[in-house]
Design a protein that fits this description.
6-stranded parallel beta sheet, single chain, Quinone Oxidoreductase, Chain A, domain 1, globular, Rossmann fold
Length: 331
Amino acid sequence: MELQPASARVLVSVMKAARTHRYGSAEVIDVVDMPAPKIGPDEILVRVRASSVNPVDWKVRRGSLRLFSGLNPPKVLGADFAGEVERTGRNVEGYAVGEKVFGMVQPLKGGAYAEKILVRPKEIARMPANASFEQAAVLPLVSLTVHQLFFDRAPHTPGQHVLVNGCTGGLGHIAVQMAKALGYCVTGVCSTRNLEVAQRLGADHVIDYRVQSPLAGERRYDLVFDAVANIGFSKAKHVLTPDGVYVSSIPTPANMLMAPILNRFRRQQHRYLWVTPDGNALRRIAQMVEAGQIEPIIEKVYELDDIRNAHTHSESGRVVGKLALRVARPN
């Protein structure tokens, strides 16, 4: 066999990634070697140091969102990432090789459970100076969702009352902190074992749902944020003020199609969240982290090779804060 001269050989960059091979349980995820992405002129190649596990990741893995997530497996999951700029496309300005950045890609697209990811400048921001890679990596999806809640879906007025259902979970614990930073009076809903966590987060009032229904009592709310999406507008409207807003963290065909129509004929509003990457909002969030207004809670850090257990843990529904995923240690 004739050997190819060294000058003619093509070196293929390889990276480690967690990829599904079919829809199913956590057992369908394998950590494999695969070609690293090739950078385009308008893209940034990020060396991923950490990611996180969000419920949307295992819903994509199961196939629950296959109508929205596009291609069938194989698929690299993950939306959140934090790492270092490895290369920039020739048209990219504002970022230098070696800078620490964090961000997210569309959750249904995925790609963050890998050692390298291609992004566009609008999808990232510089990491908070006081955050580790793991702390930065658990923030983008949840903090952007909450930012969208308070600045787009339900613009805030200081002093208004907000109910956060699921106040110690991934979304909820960020919602409580951001709401307090913006001047809301916050009531959090959680289980008995998490009451102290909710108080440490800054909630003004805490309801133990095992003891009392969050829909009982005389208190009325300008905003109900259902971070676990198990209340529903039909029930929540009874604790809303006349012009109150109910926001669900999980879009459904009903609230995506019918709610906007019905909202035209009622004062109380039913809205949903569909988070999108937003570098400008991430910069504002980074400032809040640096100011001590937001601090992510990480219940556990998993290694990439332990991704199956990380997914199983997330699916238990008992996570306080977030689960981080260490993809590669800094050199």
